[in-house]
Design brief:
Number of strands: 6
Number of helices: 6
Mean pLDDT: 96
Strand content: 5-15%
Low-confidence stretches: none
Order of helices and strands: EHHEHHEHHEEE
Distance between the termini: 22 Å
Shape: globular
Structural class: alpha/beta
CATH topology: Rossmann fold
Helix content: 40-55%
Number of domains: 1
CATH class: Alpha Beta
Length: 131
């Protein structure tokens, strides 16, 4: 099982078709995300991509049907604090890691952390765009 970070998901709307195709391929195999990913995607899409709320809704609908979407919980919040402290990650990156750990994922696809890093002996950070 793998967890997909927001920065990877956003490539669906990139001019870089190679990266967009790779993200579509990842999504087709089933991914896990959480509400934080949806919120971050929405924020970036509205502010930086100039999408309307309706366009964001339309873009995320198939994502939420394909992916398993986990809620944000106080347990993930607490684990995020522990991850941030232990690994010196930003809090929001630590929340993503905590959600992936709570979902028992073995891979976290992201560009934000060190490729190949293993967290808590169970979760491997993977940059899917690394050559």
């Amino acid at each position: 099982m793998f967890f997909l970070d927001t920065n990877v998901l956003l490539y669906l709307f990139s001019d870089d078709t190679k990266k967009a195709d790779l993200v579509e391929e990842l999504l087709s195999t089933g991914a896990i995300i959480n509400v934080q990913v949806l919120n971050e995607f929405t924020s970036v899409a509205l502010r930086k991509l100039g999408m309307t709320v309706a366009e964001v809704r339309d873009a995320l609908e198939p994502v939420t049907l394909i992916c398993k979407v986990l809620p944000l919980t106080t347990k993930i919040h607490q684990r995020g604090l522990q991850v941030a402290e232990r690994y010196q990650f930003s809090f929001y990156d630590a929340l993503i890691v905590a959600a992936a750990l709570e979902a028992r994922c073995t891979r976290l696809y992201t560009e934000d952390l060190q490729h190949g890093q293993i967290i808590d002996d169970t979760l491997t950070v993977v940059n899917p765009f690394r050559a």
